[in-house]
Design a protein that fits this description.
The complex is a heterodimer. Chain A is mainly α. Chain A has one domain. In chain A, 70% of the residues lie in helices and 7% in strands. Chain A contains 10 helices and 5 strands. In chain A, the strands form 2 sheets. Chain A has a two-stranded antiparallel ribbon with strand order 1-2. In chain A, strands 3-4 form a two-stranded antiparallel ribbon. In chain A, a hairpin with a 4-residue loop joins strand 1 and strand 2. By secondary structure, chain B is α+β, with helices and mostly antiparallel strands. Chain B folds into 2 domains: 197 residues, Immunoglobulin-like, CATH 2.60.40.1930; 40 residues, no CATH class. Chain B is built from 6 helices and 14 strands. Chain B has a 6-stranded mixed sheet with strand order 2-14-13-4-7-10. A 4-stranded antiparallel sheet of chain B has the order 1-3-12-11, with no helix packed on it. In chain B, a hairpin with a 2-residue loop joins strand 8 and strand 9. The chains are: A mainly alpha, B alpha+beta. Chains A and B meet through strand 1, helix 3, helix 5, helix 8 and helix 9 of A and strand 5, strand 6, helix 4, helix 5 and helix 6 of B. Strand 5 of chain A pairs antiparallel with strand 5 of chain B, so a sheet runs across the interface.
Chain lengths: 308, 259
Amino acid sequence: MQIYLPIADLPVNIFVILAIGLAVGFISGMFGIGGGFLMTPLLIFLGVTPAVAVASVTGHIAASSMSGAVSYWRRNAVDIALAFMLLGGGLVGTVFGVWLFTLLRSLGQLDLTIGLSYVVLLCIVGALMVAESLRAIIRARQGKPVELRRPGSHTWFHGLPFKVRFKRSRIYVSAIPVWAIGFIIGFVGAVMGIGGGFLLVPMLIYLLRVPTATVIGTSMVLTLITMASATVLHAVTNHLVDALLALILMVGGVIGAQFGARAGARISGEWLRLLLGLLVLAVGVRFALDLVLTPDELYFIRPLEGGS
Amino acid sequence: MKLRPLALCLALAAPALATPAAAERLVASVSNHRVQVSSSFTGEELVLFGSIERASNDPQRRGGYDVIAIVNGPRQNLVTYRKDRVLGIWVNVDSRVFDNVPGYLAVLANRPLDMIANAETLRRLQLGLANVVLLQRAAVTIADSSLDDPFRLAFLKLRQKQQLYQEATNGITFLTPTLYRASIPLPAESPIGDYEIDVRLFADGAPIARTNSAFEVFKTGIEQVMTSAARDHSLVYGLTTAMMALVTGWFASVVFRRD
């Protein structure tokens, strides 16, 4: 069934959009990420312009994060204090990210920058996650105890001042790295048009040693707030949020996320991280191929932005 | 001032250039003057009907009549980028702005254009995708670049692939020697706005009459409400979308609650 999207100015098959929502929702529920890094490229592939895709996906991510966050909240698996401290850094990062975004767009190399950042970021994060989870799996196979928390192994930033105790996560760390992580997520999210959950979850686990019990719920609360504000910001600044597209994606997304969350609960942490690492790596390689392989068409047309 | 003698020459020459004693009148009308884009819009095919009215003293046209119809959609500014390999990766190295070009362009005729008129006439009247003038801008200078410019050719090729530009030399059929019918295919991606139809009558390779018609493509119903809300009440629209997201997410977590 075809439906005409009012802002994207494009007819799409409603079931294709629903299926994409379901699939990405399943993945986001399973790994506790927003899935923007998967959704945005898929929509662009369907013919939605990148600007509309980025703007509309924010609504979808807000909805799936909301659905996940409520479930984690009921299970008391959200560290709200940690989420709000991350948010503080995140808002500053978003402002800097939007500034860089505007600068790059005026220089005319935004596409290339986004492509390269996807490649670098996804490949590095994916490879690190695959390597780490494989080591953990091999350790578990050899019968060694799983070392998720190593109380003695403090890294250098555990010596930093302004220490805060996060009761729910049972960690005692300096506020500086928490703010820094929030800043990076906000910055990267604004420049690349993603929620940043796939970056945030490993950072919280490996750097702050947040226990796996609270990491996904906390990440979802943060994503929920940033993406809901991003939806409003995109609507006000660019007028490019397609509410109809977002609604179809949301409906598919929240249903998929529920099933994903249940599937994720049955898989052990290492295997979950390995799967997510492989997925992130695959998307990164896909972007790298796009940059390296000779395209079918050397020319492409875009509407002229701005008045100049 | 210098131009005045030239203008005078042209004015005197004009009746001579047009076919003498051409009294045929061309009539055209389109089946639907207001094309509605609703949520079920997947493109539409308009029908253009028309006839050639002959007076009793009109000359006999041995070669019969030919009709060429040009449909121009709303004007847009479009950028064409060219990629090239730099340090192993494909980068946008060059771009041209196409200024004020039609967002939709269809050239319809009853037979191949080169059989209707000679190349010179076609070029002068900008008939056919190969002859239409597309203003290009590189950096600061505006230029109507040559007809075989690579950016222009790539632009035309890409627009034709999207069916936003098309040339159909079987797009017009004559029902009787003086009654013709054309179908104007509007793809789903057709831009919103005003469309102009320019119809020209040819006989023996010369243009002898001309008429025009127009139609409008506009959004209606929920499409129109959402477009105007997104533009005119963007804060309310954004807040509503965000609220919709939160409610959808909350609702799902309640519906699927298991504990």
